[in-house]
Structure formats: structure tokens, C-alpha cells
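G., the chain you wanted modeled:
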Amino acid sequence: MTNGKKGKVGVQDIADILNISASTVSRALNDHPRISKDTKDKVLQVARRLGYFSGMPDFAAPERGEVIALMVPSLEYAFYREVIYGARDYLEKKDYDISIFDTRKSDKYVSGLFGKYKNFGISGIIHVVSDRTIPAGFYSGLIDDAMPVVSVFEPESETGISSVLPDMFNGVYQSVKYLQSVGVNRVALLLEHENCPVDHQIVSSFLSAYESVSGNTEDVSFFYTEMESKSSDRIVAEIIGRDERPEVIFVKNVTSSFEVISYLQREGIDVPGDMMVITIDTVSGTKQLSGNMSLLKIPAYEMGYKAAQVLMAQLANPKTDKKISVIPSNFILKGSAMRMG
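Predicted structure as C-alpha cells:
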């Protein structure tokens, strides 16, 4: 595309295609509440088609002189959008702009952004970690530059920066205590990837909860969709075909949860009478949860809000000590898992 920027796609290119203003495109990409969902969806669709997120976006230039970069693994899932909403709501009160980067779960892309921030007036960075295996020293350049940075989740290696984490054990323990109270023991977890930070916490929390409640972890089994490369139907077929079939399936992502319920119903399996289904997701912005889906709630909005608070403390006082903030998860019981004990 010829736009006077050596082939780089910019906000104006997207605006020209959609016949809207560049400022509307910028607000849509920043998930501004006054921009309609339909416009946001169209802007994101064109942005992806043009490869807009392949470099540093034009909208990193702050309107008010201060901008925070928020790097998320995907704009597709409700969880990451809720992190954005939480951070945005806090930063707007502090009169900061927020620029959102879809890193597409690429550590290489994130490293590239870390190397470019000086050229774009970035005042601080919130990085949502998508893979526990990022190398030691991943943030060392930012630390050397005294750039304020906070991670949402953390890798298995030491980072040297402040982090905001979910306490998944809190919600998991609540759900396990309920399941035990109604005589449900065998549990299957349908997750995304074993190196995904929240999936790792979920597995560890279930094992700890069952060890605490019953002393038996053998009834807990784990299945991964491997970054969506495997069909959830095929995995659910494997789960229900086991000799000792699980009595409840915890499914990461509310959309996938409803797909699992549809599959079970096609197979003549009643939910929750024959098998319970509980989603692992976040509440706000997920319209399906107005129905009967039980929820192991990841506190995404609260984590984004807290990450912004911690970052602002660093900006106010660069000598602020490293801080680990933990936000509790919760279990919300609805019809998809409701039985009388």
C-alpha cells in the first residue's frame, strides 16, 4: 500500500476504506466506549486484513501528552477485553491515554515493541503475559531504562518487575467444595495450553483443592485444545468415552462452554443431570452469562484496574519497590451445574 510511509499501514488507510474519520478509527482501536460495537468490529476486521498490528501503531502518539501501552495477546477473547476495560477506566481518571497492541501471542513481537517505545512517547507499559516460558531477562532492557512496566500474569522465570496475578485457588476451592457437597467427584478441565499462565494456575489450584478437600487428585483430568488447533468436539468425545466418565467439565471460554453443551445434548447427555458444565471466564461483557451458565470467574477487569494502579505508583515514584498483587477469583453457581445435594 502506498501511503507515504514506506508501505506501513496507518490509521488513515483504515479510515479511507471505511469512509470514516481517522479519529474514529483511533478511538475504535482504543475501544472507546462512545464508539459502537459495529464500528469497532469493522475497524478491527480491516486492521487485521491490512496487517495494521504488524508494527507500532500511529495511535501511540498521545493526545494529552501521556500514553500507556497495553499489550494483550488477543483482542478476540472477553478476558483480554476486560483487562483493557479495567486499565482504561483507571487511566482515564488519571488523564492518561491508552494504546492497545494485539501482540498475537508472539513474544518476538512484544520484544520488538519494547525496543521501539522510546520513539513513540510511551510513559509506561502493561504487558499481559501469554506464555510462561518467556526467557529470563525478557524485561531487562526496560528495567535498565527505568521504564515503568507491570505484567498481568508472570512467567516461570524471575522478571524483576511488578505483576498482577489471579488467585485461582479461591474460586476453584469454592467450586470443589460445592461439587463434593452434591456427590460429584470426577472432574475434567478443558483448557487452552499448558504453558498459558492462567491454565497453569487453574491446574495447580484444582490439584491443591482436591488434595485439601478429599486427599485424592486422581479424579482430576486435564485436556488442552493446544491454541485452538484441536477440535473441542473431538476432545469432548474422548472425555465422555472414558470408562469412568467425568461428572463435570470445566471449559475455558464461555463460547466454548456453550459449544460443549450443544455437543453433549446432541449425544443425548442431559446438562446438568448427567453431566455438569462450568465455564472458566469473566462475567462483564459476556451476554451469554445472563442465562444459566455456572462460572469460575477470572477477575480480569480487576486485574487490569490494579495493573494500572501499580503502574501509576511507579510513575509517581520511580523508586517504588517491586510488587506482586493478587486478585481473588470466584465461583458463581447457576443452572448448568445446579443439583440438590
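The longest helix spans residues 197-213.

Shout if anything looks off.
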